[in-house]
Amino acid sequence: MKQLPDKLAKRLEQRLQNNALRKLSVYDPTFDFSSNDYLGLAAAEFNSGNKSQKFQGAGGSRLLTGNHKAYEVLETQICSFHQSQAALVFNSGYAANLGLLGAIGQRRDHIFYDALAHASIRDGLQLSNAKSLKYRHNDLTHLEELLERHKESTGTLYVVTESVFSMDGDSPDLEALVNLSERYGAYLIVDEAHALGVIGERGHGLVQALQMQDRVFARIVTFGKALGYHGAAVLGSEALKTYLVNFARSLIYTTALAQDMVYSLADRYTWLSKSTEALKEIEKLHRNIALLRLYTEKYGVDKHFIASDSAIHSVIIPGNDRVKTLSASLNEAGFGVLPILAPTVPQGVERLRICLHSYNESDSIEGLVERIASFLKD
Ligand SMILES: Cc1ncc(COP(=O)(O)O)c(C=O)c1O
Fold first, then answer.
1. Of 268, 255, 260, whose CA–CA distance to 224 is shortest?
2. Of 136, 183, 266, 273, which is the most exposed, with the fewest CB atoms less than 10 Å away?
3. Angstrom distance (rounded) from CA 209 to CA 198
C-alpha cells in the first residue's frame, strides 16, 4: 500500500502534537448529552404507509429521475408549516448551505458572515464568486461598519447568520439584524438548524417566533437535529427556488434522497405541526433547559457557561488536554458529553458542549453539573 505523502503525514502529526487528532468512535452512553436529537425522534417509528412500490431509491438526481412525488408532498407541507412561499429540499444541511451560498454570490457582491458561522456556511462562501467578509460574533456594530464601508458597491449585499449558533448555543438579536439589513438593502440569510423543533411554540424556529418570515431572504432548516433524521430545506421565494434548481450544484449533481426517507420526513413534519406529543416534548426540553440553568447556579459554575436559551450549552474549559480529561471521566461515568477542541474552536475557548433533550432526566442533569463543578474547583 502506498504511504501518505510527507506533507499530509506532517499535517496529521501536527494534529497529534496538539492533542487534536480526530478519531471515529462508537457513541453509546447511559445519559445522552451530545446528540442533536433534541426531541427524541431519532428512535421514534414513523411509517404512515405512504410508499410507492415502484422505486425505493431515487435512481438519480432530482433534475433527472429522482424527483419522486414524495418531494412535492414534503415541500408543500414545509411551506405551510414555515409560512414560506417555497421550499427546496436538499440531502443535508451541509449540501443546502453549499448549494445556496455557492450559487447566489456573484462577482462584485459582498457576503457578510458571523465569525462563528458553521463550517457549511464557510465552505459555501468559498464556492461563491462574491467577496466574503467576517464580522465579530453577534456584533451588529461591527456589521454596520462593514455595511457602511461597502454600501456604495455596485454588487448585491448579503448577510448570513445562524438563529442558534451550533457551538455557543446563543442567538443574534434577530430583530435588530433584520432592521439593519433592511436599512442597507442587504439580503438576510438565517440558518435555523438548531432552532427547528426547539424555538417557538411548535418549534417553528426563531424567524417565525419573531414573525420575521416575510423580511428575510432565505432560511435553512435541517432535519438531522430535532427531527432526528436527515436532509434540509432552503425556504424562500418561488424565484429563489427556481434559481437554485438551476444553479445549486449540490442539488443538481447528486442522487436524490430515497423516497421512504422523504415520506418519513413528511411524517415527522406532521408530528411537529399537529400532534400534542410534539408540544409536550418541546415543553419537556425547555423544562430541562431551565433545570440546567438552575443547577449551574446552585453549584456556582454558571459563569463558566456561555449564556444560552437553546438546547446547546457550552462550558468553557481552556486547553485540549483539560477538556479531554474531563470529558473522558464523564464518559466513564456514563455521561455522553463530548469535548470541542481547538482548531474546531479557537485556542483558549475549548469546551464541553452539552446538548439537552426532552428525554434527559433531572437527576442526570444535576449529576452532570455536579461533576463539572467538582472538576472546575480542583
Ligand atoms: C448551523 C448548522 N448548519 C448546517 C449544519 C449541517 O447540517 P447537516 O448535518 O444536515 O449537514 C449544521 C450541522 O451541524 C449546523 O450546525
1. 268
2. 183
3. 11
**Which ligand 1 atom sits closest to the C-alpha of 230?**
10
Q: Atom 14, ligand 1: which residue's CA is nearest? A: 166
Q: Using one digit for the tens of pLDDT, what is the confidence trace for 199-254?
A: 999 999 999 999 999 999 999 999 999 999 999 999 999 999 999 999 999 999 99
φ, ψ of residue 157 to 5 degrees: the values are: -105, 135
Residue 350, Cα to own-chain centre: how many angstroms? 19
- Report the nearest atom of ligand 1 relative to the CA of 164: 1
191 counts as catalytic: yes
**The CATH fold of domain 15-38+276-377:** Aspartate Aminotransferase, domain 1 (3.90.1150)
Distances (CA, A) of 67 to 133, 194, 198: 36, 27, 30
Domain ranges for the chain: 15-38+276-377, 69-274
pLDDT tens, position by position, 189-201: 999 999 999 999 9
